[in-house]
Amino acid sequence: MGIPLLSVRHYDNIYIRTSNNKNEMRNNDIIKIAEILRDLGIDPDITSFDSRLRIQKTVFILKSMGISLDYPFEFYRGGHGVYSRKLANDYYNDRILLASKSPPSTLNEDEKAKLHQFKKIDYLNNKMLEAISSIIYLDLVYDFQEDVVAEIKPIKPHIGHDTVLLAQNLTKMLLFKEEYLTEDIVKEMQIWDALDDDSNYQP
User: Fold this and answer.
1) What is the pLDDT of residue 107?
2) What 3 state SS string does the chain have?
3) What is d(CA 13, CA 11) in angstroms, rounded to the nearest whole number?
4) Residue 189 pLDDT > 80, yes or no?
5) Do 84 and 72 contact (CB within 8 A), yes or no?
6) Least buried of 1, 36, 92, 158, by fewest C-beta within 10 Å?
7) Which comes out higher in pLDDT, residue 177 or 2?
8) Residue 72 contacts by C-beta under 8 Å, 6 or more apart in sequence?
9) Residue ranges of the domains in the chain?
């Protein structure tokens, strides 16, 4: 049996020995997440429930947008929705990597563009992230609005009706594909573009 090759990585004055196997892939993913969190200004403090929730939802949404992250997700109807045990395991075990202030860049150009698209969306508090991630996981993105509300409200009673409607529209923008560009969606996008200057919106 061959001996796996070892490499040494340096960041934040910490040297990490990683092998060219699943541990290497795990480190690559958590370094990518550290880069994403720093770029988005998200606090990587995993002792905070709000911070962990924000990390879970953000990673799921970005993965859905096409950023390569090797994390399977489940949906908990009695809890806060999408959740990855593997992601939780990684950020608990690699919290030093996650909190790195100068992680190496691991995003390719297409992934950087998707991250930039995500950053352009306003109002992304935790409730909005919960709503968006639930709509994506439950495949409700292009359903009728009343059907989306009827599905989301019973499992997310703490999320307001208007927040669910806005979340569906934001989800369409995040997952936008040319083949879905109907006249109705164009009008919808124009309406939400006109609301960009409304800094008083509080979902």
Assistant:
1) 94
2) CCCCCEEEEEECCEEEEEECCHHHHHHHHHHHHHHHHHHHCCCCCCCCHHHHHHHHHHHHHHHHHCCCCCCCCEEECCCCEEECHHHHHHHHHCHHHHCCCCCCCCCCHHHHHHHHHHHCCCCCCHHHHHHHHHHHHCCCCCCCHHHHHHHHHHHCCCCCHHHHHHHHHHHHHHCCCHHHCCHHHHHHHHHHHHCCCCCCCCC
3) 5
4) no
5) yes
6) 1
7) 177
8) 84, 86
9) 1-110, 121-203
**Among 37, 56, 71, residue whose Cα is nearest residue 130:** 56
Calculate the CA 12 to chain-centre distance.
Answer: 25
Give residue 187's pLDDT band: very low, low, confident or very high (50, 70, 90): low
Please check whether residue 126 is in contact with residue 54, taking contact to mean a CB–CB distance below 8 angstroms: yes
User: Is there a contact between 203 and 166 (Cβ–Cβ < 8 Å)?
Assistant: yes
- Per-residue model confidence as pLDDT tens digits over 19-72: 344 555 557 899 999 999 999 999 999 999 999 999 999 999 999 999 999 999
Find, among 129, 137, 163, 131, the residue nearest to 55 by Cα.
129
Q: What was the pLDDT predicted at 103?
A: 75
Note whether 94 and 138 are within 8 A (CB): no
